[in-house]
Structure formats: structure tokens, C-alpha cells
Amino acid sequence: MEWGSEGLRFIVVDGLDGCGKDTHAGRMKALLESEGNSVSVISHPSGRPFGRVSKRFLRETGPLARLFTTLFFTADVLVSIRELKHERDRTTILVRYLLGTAYLPKALAPMGYTVLRKVLPFPDLAIFIDIEPEVAHKRIAARGHAPEVFETPERLASVRKIAKTLVAQEWVTIDNSEDGERPFRELEKLLRERSFLGLTR
After folding, report:
1. Nearest residue to 21 via CA among 139, 161, 115
2. 178 exposure class (CB count in 10 Å sphere: 0-12, 13-18, 19+)
3. Residue 56 pLDDT > 60, yes or no?
4. What residues contact residue 76 under an 8 Å CB cut-off, 6+ apart?
5. CB 112 within 8 A of CB 101
6. Per-residue pLDDT band at 5 (split at 50, 70, 90)
7. Which stretch of DSSP H or E encloses residue 193?
8. Cα-based angle 188, 190, 195 (whole degrees, multiple of 5)
9. DSSP per-residue letters across 112-181
10. Confidence (pTM)
């Protein structure tokens, strides 16, 4: 990666709320560490100040709340990118990255993504975890916490439709709509094909 530090490898995992981003990132971390790699995972919105404000706006409704959620989310991501520049000889996995723009109004999302794609470094591997909105909603409900503004079936379907247009070119999609180990086997195969893991075991 041209912008990054020597030996830094950069992976992004993104997708709808409830799609299993953190679970897949955790699986990747375990796989990579099993082969002696040094790995860090940063999930957005983080617990840092910008991330906390972004989370607060996720509890609000209306177009201004959506805008401020995205703005503070982007600021939180920028802090992560600044920190990455100081990393050496490790793999960093970012959970949620460019697809925060999919939560913008439909007319603004493509432009927002294009701007961030030009400004922010693109990862060595970008993974979109796809999921049917109804399945995502059930998994979110099973967590037992108060739903956020984008966690209704209708909003999930809208965000998914936008996100799938944004990831059509450079992203690898893994379908996680069904329970089981298949998505994780697909994930491991992908990591081996892209030489993040040894090609043989």
C-alpha cells in the first residue's frame, strides 16, 4: 500500500448493521495470528470522542441527525487512518470504513463515497458482508438493545441497496444471510488467495 508504513497490511470489513462485521473481523484476527501475524482491529464508531458523538446521533431521527452521524463517523475514521501511518509490520483490520456514506440520503451517497474514495487510502482487501435485511433485523433484535435509527427493516433495505452499488467494482462480497460456517470458510479461502495467509496448510 503506497501511502502506508513499511510492512503494514490493511483490511476493511463493512456492511449493514447486524451483518456480522465484528464477528468476521474477529475470525480474521484469529486466523492471521495463528500464523504468527501481528493484528489489530479498530471498529467504528469507536470509543474515541468523534465515535461517541456519532453513536449519539444514531439515536436521533431526521436528516440533520443522519448528516451529523456521517460527519462524525468520517472524523473518527480519519483518526484511525492517522494512527495507521505510524504502524509497522502488522495487519490492521478496520470495521466500517467508506460505506458510512451509504447512510447518507440516496442522492448524496455516491458523491460522498467518491470523495472519500479519492481522499482516503483504499485497503489491500475490502470485504463487504452482505445480508438480507430481514435477517439483519432479526439478529439486531436478538441483541436486546434499543434499536438505532437505521436498524428498521425499511432502512436496512434502503442502505443495503445503496451500499451494493458502491461496492460493485473493488470490493469482495461474502453473503452471511445463513447461519453456519460457510461464510467463514469463504473468508479463510479469500485470505489465502490474497496471500494474507499461507497458501497451504
Report:
1. 139
2. exposed
3. yes
4. 44, 45, 46, 48, 50, 51, 54
5. yes
6. low
7. helix 182-193
8. 95
9. HHHHHHHHSPPPSEEEEEE--HHHHHHHHHHH-SPPPTT-SHHHHHHHHHHHHHHTTTTPEEEE--S-SS
10. 0.88
One-letter amino acid at 111 equals M
- CA gap 6, 192 in Å, rounded: 21
Check residue 111 and give its pLDDT: 95
Residue 42 CB-density burial (10 A; 0-12 exposed, 13-18 middle, 19+ buried): buried
The half-sphere exposure of 75 on its side-chain side, counting CA atoms within 13 A, is: 15
List the domain boundaries for the chain.
10-42+93-193
**What residues contact 170, with CB distance under 8 A and at least 6 apart?**
122, 126
Grid coordinates standing for 109?
A: 451517497
Please give the CATH number for the structural domain made up of 10-42+93-193: 3.40.50.300
Residue 85 DSSP one-character state: T
Cis amide prior to 45 (ω within 30 degrees)? yes
From its phi and psi, is residue 83 left (phi > 0), alpha (psi between -120 and 50) or beta? alpha
pLDDT, residue 199, reads 53
